[in-house]
Amino acid sequence: MKQISGNKLLVKALKEEGVEVLFGYPGACTIDISDELYKQSGIDIVLPRHEQALVHEADAYARTTGKVGVCLVTSGPGASNLVTGLATANYDSVPLVCFTGQVARYLIGNDAFQEVDIVGITRSITKYGVTVRRREDLGRIIKEAFYIARTGRPGPVLIDLPKDVMCEMGSAEYPKSVNIRGYKPNTSVHIGQLKKALKMLQKAKRPLFLAGGGVNISRANELFTQVVDKTQVPVVTTVMGRGAISTKHPLYIGNVGMHGAYAANMAVSSCDLLFSIGTRFNDRVTGKLHAFAPHAQIVHIDIDTASISRNIQVDIPIVADAKEAISKMAEYAEELNTKKWIAEIEKWQAEHPLTMKQRKLMSPLDIIQEINNQFDEAILVTDVGQHQMLVSQYADITEKKQLIMSGGLGTMGYGLPGSIGAKIGNPDTPVISISGDGGIQMNIQEMATAVLEELPVITCIFNNEYLGMVRQWQKLFYGKRYSMTNLKAGALSRRTNGEEYPPEYVPDFVKLAESYGAKGIRVTKKEEIAAAFEEAKKNTKAPTIIEFIIDPEEMVYPMIQPGGTLEDMIMDC
Fold first, then answer.
1. Which of the following is catalytic: 3, 15, 113, 199?
2. Taking a C-beta distance cutoff of 8 angstroms, is the pair 130, 119 a contact?
3. Cα separations (Å) of 150 from 86, 129, 320?
4. 462 CB-near residues (< 8 Å, 6+ apart)
5. Model confidence over 128-179: pLDDT tens digits?
6. Catalytic pick from 469, 555, 559, 569?
7. Which ranges of 31-137 does DSSP label H, i.e. alpha helix?
8. Are the C-beta atoms of residues 130 and 159 closer than 8 Å to each other?
9. Is 163 noted as a catalytic residue in this protein?
10. Which of 197, 302, 494, 554 is such that its CA lies 20 to 30 A from the CA of 153?
């Protein structure tokens, strides 16, 4: 039987798994794998500028295509630079397979050059991690990794590859099937439980659907819309669930939680049945746990058994894939008379509509509304902070528009690399990243990747000269003591007791864009917004940075007070 090296088998395995794009950064322990990848055709290799950005790019590629994202990095710092990205993917249930180089087996444990126990380091933030100790196990482990990453609750899997194992000769066979004794994810729906839940729904006077990220992950949006149309039950979403149903749908109320719409939070607090699908009920959604949906019976559908009744005790648990469950709901659900309940919700919407104060200066809402106007089809990728919450509140997410972000971990620096991964996976779809002036600088080096890959992503920077979300908390709850949040501050501010700042912002984002070979545009007035996007759309072979100069006093409302309930909303200030 023909024998090949582990490096060759890895490349063969990637092709067998249908991998079209690999995000990789080389090093001593993976140079032989890089050499094998050089000899093949069919897999595009993307060379980012930092391993953290690399894993975010693979993550966004996976989120927007439904495929498994694939990474390759070297040992030591190459591997440890993956940690933030793996945690990001783990929280948001993103299927990744990440290969890390490792020193030869006889050196493991000897503090060899660029040796770290990456499997140990990442054990709590990966779905599965393993070091390949024997060449004969390599094919099986890779096959299992892809299966584990994409099944059940998706997540990141890490395979650590000692250099000597990969050079060793062995079988060229790659397994056709997987049989893992301790891993048998359930996706089918317990029909008895589902019918019980639907019966409860039928009896409810004030029913409410809560759609989480699981609906988007399972790509059940169309089916879920059918169920909503059939039942006439209103819908709220988590931030990660935004887009589970079109935000323009008449029964969609808005996001729930810390920065949720007033009507959405009031609906959760007043409903008598909360029918939740694909959400973990984290603290940003629930507020004070004992006061969450206090009058409601709760149905919870989730693919992850561990997520059910972990934070919120539920009345009817259903362990199932969201799409499978919603498909069955579409069969069995019946129309309800919800007109009186909907009228009550509409009254809340009229009392406190989701809007921002009209100002003479350009506001984030002006920018987001222009994106809504100019882009019928798009992928929006946000960083983390005020801009993220504003986009999740005001961006239209419809059948042709998708919103992705780091939701569970809240990773600054996700936006730009995320847009690159999304554009590589969806070359014919406009991709717009939205970042603050803080988050954009955490992975700004990826502008080089976007230029060299000829990716016409549009990068919006909301520049308010501050770390805006932390500043908002400092303004509301810390007596306006803006400690460590002013991005113009430096040695000069320390010398003058914080009263003076350099006259110019560092860096000049327009010049920085141009230095990379991208286009740079600065917008200071709302009248310039439309033209800036029109100009960016003409730039079809390179990225564009649009820097929007925003008032630091712009805030995100509504906002739940720390330790408060969903009814303890600060509406404006």
1. 113
2. yes
3. 15, 15, 15
4. 364, 367, 386, 387, 434, 435, 436, 437, 468, 548, 550
5. 999 999 999 999 999 999 999 999 999 999 999 999 999 999 999 999 999 9
6. 469
7. 31-39, 51-65, 77-80, 83-91, 118-121
8. yes
9. yes
10. 197
List the structure tokens of 251.
């029964």
Alpha carbon 80 to chain centroid distance? 21
Q: Which of 8, 127, 143, 163 is catalytic?
A: 163
| Residue 461, token pair as written in the block | 């920077």
What is the C-alpha separation between 57 and 457, in angstroms, rounded? 13
Instruction: Kindly report, residue by residue over 453-486, the tens digit of the pLDDT.
Output: 999 999 999 999 999 999 999 999 999 999 999 9
Flag the least confident range among 224-233, 267-276, 303-312: 303-312
Average pLDDT over residues 36-62: 97
Judged by DSSP in three states, 338 sits in: coil
Is 349 designated active site? Answer: no
Q: Does the global pTM surpass 0.90?
A: yes
Q: Are 480 and 474 in contact (CB under 8 A)?
A: yes
Angle formed by the axes of helices 322-332 and 191-203, nearest 10°: 60
Number of residues written out for the chain: 573
469 is catalytic: yes
Q: How far is CA 286 from the centre of its chain?
A: 19
β strands within 449-557, DSSP E: 458-463, 519-523, 544-549
275 is a catalytic site residue? no
Q: How far apart are CA 235 and CA 240, in angstroms?
A: 14
Q: Evaluate whether 305 touches 321 at the Cβ level (below 8 Å).
A: no
- Complete DSSP assignment for 421-458: HHHHH-TTS-EEEEEETTGGGGSTTHHHHHHHTT---E
* Residues 6 or more apart whose Cβ sits within 8 Å of residue 328: 189, 191, 194
Q: Which of 16, 20, 114, 349 is catalytic?
A: 114
